[in-house]
Amino acid sequence: MAKKTIDQVDVAGKTVLMRVDFNVPLDENQAITDDRRIAMALPSIKSVIDRGGKLILMSHLGRPEGKGFEAKYSLAPAAKQLGVLLGKPVAMAKDTVDEDAVAKAAALKDGDVLVLENLRFNSGEKKGCEEFAGKLAAMADIYCNDAFGTCHRTDASMVAVPRAMEGKPRVVGHLVAKEIQYLSDAIGNPQRPFVAILGGAKVSDKINVINNLLGICDSVLIGGAMAYTFSLAQGGKVGGSLVEKDKVELAKELIAKGGDKLQLPVDTHCGDDFGNIAGCNKKVVPAGEIPDGMEGLDIGPETAKIYADIIKNSKTVVWNGPMGVFEKPPMDAGTKAVAQAVADADCTSIIGGGDSAAAVDQLGFADQVSHVSTGGGASLAMLEGQKFAAVDLLDEA
């Protein structure tokens, strides 16, 4: 599935239209509170401008209505911060495909950078509009996708633009190339034992992932609140735990299908006040024996030990979703034990974005795993075995 990268095309004197993910968090004063997404795009950006290319960057930010400019969703703060990180001026267009953007794109000199205004200010972006895409495509000689977080979507900038640029180079940036290498290749041809760790709140969010991974993994370890739906399916008591009663039959089917591959918790750390975890009554009980008035908040220590032993012997690990309420000690113990085991294992370890990435980062293990995905929804979709039109359209290596 390897795709041609931006480094493999001659960009000198040419204009590159690059889809990036500058969907950064902003405070009430429009100040960026975390610029990692901008910083992570720098290798692809520098690959173009350091080799004499002209660069047009496009991204969405937040969820504007698609009816024109909305100040709180402007990409101007991102353009400004990019200029700081690059140490050079970065031009900012007032629109996406209208007069100002077209004029500023035409005025670019070799090594210059232009950021277009938020793609979602135009309703054509979410609709995948070909006319909107055609206007974006007309600005450039080369298309580059470096926004893995939106690769599972069919927005105009992801699918219709590269389609409109057929015949011109259509490549991936460094971030997308790395995601494909780890997520696609590890799943398609994993070293074994191959272990998947799945947590989070809802079975319904992970049905397709569990189904797909049961077919290709050696072990699938279940944690998080979704474990209580499985517990209910086995006739267990779950107290006030978060469960999906309408998914109990489905959980039974997954248990039957999974057999020994599907590993469920054997004990649960529970408490009687989610709002005051530090001060509430807490105890560890066998799985399926959570008393009334208490709810499961983490896997128990025996489960953590069993899971750590399985992970220790693995050669490939994919992890999506924390084991418990990792933000609130002591209910971070299960997630911490699993993170430590993944960090210590002699394996290729892939953390699937979202809460798992936040947990690994917060607990200090981000530097000890092979790859932390930049896209929660996209990494889940890839783990489900979905095909991405946004990637399939691009040039093969």
Automatic annotation (TrEMBL):
Location(s) in or outside the cell: Cytoplasm
Encoding gene per record: pgk
Principal location class: cytoplasm
Lineage of origin: Bacteria, Pseudomonadati, Planctomycetota, Planctomycetia, Pirellulales
Organism field: Rubripirellula amarantea
GO biological process, one term: gluconeogenesis
Catalytic activity: (2R)-3-phosphoglycerate + ATP = (2R)-3-phospho-glyceroyl phosphate + ADP
PANTHER family in alphabetical order: PHOSPHOGLYCERATE KINASE, PHOSPHOGLYCERATE KINASE 1, CHLOROPLASTIC-RELATED
GO MF annotation, one: ADP binding
Listed name of the protein: Phosphoglycerate kinase
